[in-house]
Amino acid sequence: MDKTDQLERNSWTVLLPEELEVVQNFTQPYLNFLNQGKTEREAIEYIYQTARNHGFMPIEECQQLKAGQKIVIKEKGKICALVVVGKDPIENGINIVASHIDSPRLDLKVRPLYEEDGLALLKTHYYGGIKKYQWLAIPLAIHGVVVKKDGQIVNIVVGEKPEDPVLTISDLLPHLAKEQMEKKMSEAISGEGLNALAGSIPLDKDEKNPVKTYIVKILKDQYDIEEEDLTSAELELVPAFQAREVGLDRSMIGAYGQDDRVSAYASLRAILEVKDPNKTAMCLFADKEEIGSVGNTGLHSLVIENIVIELMNLAGKNNYLDIRRCLGRSCALSADVNAAVDPNYPDVFEKRNCSYLTRGVVLTKFTGSRGKAESSDANPEFLGKIRRLFEEEKVSWQVGELGKVDIGGGGTVAQYMAYYGMEVVDCGVAVMGMHSPFEIVSKVDVYMSYKAYRAFMQSF
């Protein structure tokens, strides 16, 4: 596309047959990634193993920093950074593409298992911004880890294989739902009502809670864990269905967790192809974005600073000024998604400034809510350079905004990187049905995001 006017730019990305084949070949492995990486731990493990298979060396094995070197850093099972060392001194800055690998879901509470009315259930606490009703009456899989008192870690995945059982949260039949259906959608289902069915067979009728007792026995027999071990566990309920091609033309992908694993996958594929860049390139995969980037695995912590300090230490640069200069001279793409215009809900979108499926990667100058609250508003000088880069590299792109001004909004990790003085802009894929159990993206847009990230890390 060589159109420069933004209003003209908001048109479909038209590809030749051979280009469509390239897009199809690129996105087929992406479905596998979505199926294998439904939790942040699983996504990070996939990324780490892929990096190792492509010659990235754990930072613990590095003695010094050399141009062309490929380094992988993994922390706490939920953070990963892939680095390709550039020719320029690292204190001149790093080109960073940062995405997040957590997604909205249902977490099991620390004391989840109970029995009521002859049924065993699991209590949950929802994570991130969800529409609670969307999580009823669908098959759910349980993923996560249980850490026993002796430190042993037990990995659990139930519900993904065809022969596996699944969990579900029942919905109220319409015959008895008159009062429920008269409530606001936000009130019709309570957070405390999101309890998943876990069993119905009593082990011993003389027991006080015979059905729960049987579930406890299953946990012991199959996983060698006690009920009390669930207090030191991280177990998540996620949709049990697989990623699928959508549309009679197979042009889209539907799956759980594409916000923001679509950016994680595209940036992973991009950095695997970066060779001998001038500036050091980094792909950063972080946790906790959906709840404010908090905690010691979110970007509101010192994650970026700690990684940069480790890299600069390898380069023999240990003074505080060099570290601050590196961070301040860095540039970043906050690789996160935007909301695609949905023709079923036209009233919430300002169509001249919102993003669309199949129109390329989305540059989002600012996010935030209403009056740009909690936004990193990108500088126009930086945007101008990014536009020129995308034009030179033939990246189809569009601009986007998250709906009409007064309706809502949302944030990304951009503000936490801008904190260090680096230039940052949000850049990602348009998503339809964001935060639902089955989000929709365009294959063309996924491919264009990969091209954008690769160009930024290789040539910016």
Structural account:
The chain is an alpha/beta fold and 460 residues long. The protein has 2 domains: 6-103 and 256-459, Zn peptidases (Aminopeptidase), CATH 3.40.630.10; 105-239, Aminopeptidase i, Domain 2. Helix content is 29%, strand content 24%. The chain contains 12 helices and 22 strands. The strands form 5 sheets. A 9-stranded mixed β-sheet has the order 1-2-3-13-4-14-20-16-18, sandwiched between helices. Strands 8-7-10-5-6-9 form a 6-stranded antiparallel β-sheet. Strand 7 (140-147) and strand 8 (153-158) form a beta hairpin. Helix 7 (258-271) crosses helix 12 (443-459). The protein is globular.
Q: How would the global form be characterised?
A: globular
CATH superfamily descriptor of the largest domain: Zn peptidases
Order of strands in the sheet with most strands: 1-2-3-13-4-14-20-16-18
Specify the helix fraction band. 25-40%
Calculate the mean pLDDT score and round it. 94
Could you tell me the CATH topology label of the largest domain.
Aminopeptidase
Summarize the SSE layout with pairings.
Layout: H1 6-9, H2 17-36, H3 40-53, E1 57-58, E2 70-75, E3 79-84, E4 94-100, E5 105-116, E6 119-127, E7 140-147, E8 153-158, H4 178-182, H5 185-188, E9 195-199, H6 210-223, E10 233-239, E11 244-246, E12 252-255, H7 258-271, E13 280-286, H8 303-314, H9 320-329, E14 331-334, E15 338-339, E16 361-364, E17 368-369, H10 380-392, E18 397-399, E19 409-410, H11 414-418, E20 423-428, E21 430-431, E22 439-442, H12 443-459
Parallel strand pairs: 1-2, 4-13, 4-14, 14-20, 15-21, 16-18
Antiparallel strand pairs: 2-3, 3-13, 5-6, 5-10, 6-9, 7-8, 7-10, 11-12, 12-22, 16-20, 17-19
